[in-house]
Amino acid sequence: MKFLFFWSDLEWIGFCRDQKDQRVSELVIIVSSAQTSGLFPLSASSAPTLELNNLPCWGLQGTASRVTTNPSWTGNARATLTGTFSGLGATQYFNQAEGRLRVQIGWSTFKTGTQTIDENYTEGGCTYRANGSFSASGVASGGDIGGSWMLNQFVGSVPDVFNDPIAQVIGPADRAYVMGISSSRTVTGTVSGPSGCGSTYTAAFGQLVATQADNFETGGMPKRVGPNGNLTGSLVVGNDTYTWDFQALREP
Question: What does pTM read for this prediction?
Fold first, then answer.
């Protein structure tokens, strides 16, 4: 399928090639002059450039987990999330007056997956156990998974009104990203041991993904998307160790 566009008034044009209707396989750019007499070379304030990267833009798929240990425990607590973030929605910016077309300013929300909890630890003579696997969906569809992710993709294309808040969180570095995901689901676990231990307790999934402890402007160190385009890493915050591995998801 071929399309013809006129971009004379635009300074920046973007395509999210993970998205079906923007999956460009061939791009031909024609530069011409309407002058009909004389030979006058075309000039521009700066030479046109073509930039490509392998950063995700339409969605993500992968797995993340949090393992909690405590100096007073024997054992640990683990919560895991596997699923997809998909749907570009209204996250591309277009402003004819600013000469911008399809600038990425937002990212997809969690859609669907599975969340699993496995706790088995002893503290003060009491043993706590909780486990289970549950379907997971985003809060936008009435589920219990909330949070967001963002990354620096062609930073120079983003208007300051959007870029400044992003830079406060992840800084100006190319390919820097941040992700924070949590679940509001709780599970009733069992307690065994002496009579004072009780019989049940509430185990919370809580924070499932945390890629940096603080915003960039307060000393946080954002992660970078790997050369293969994956968001992969780990972070220790207090008694919690977070690990994650997400890959770009293409719209079918």
Answer: 0.89
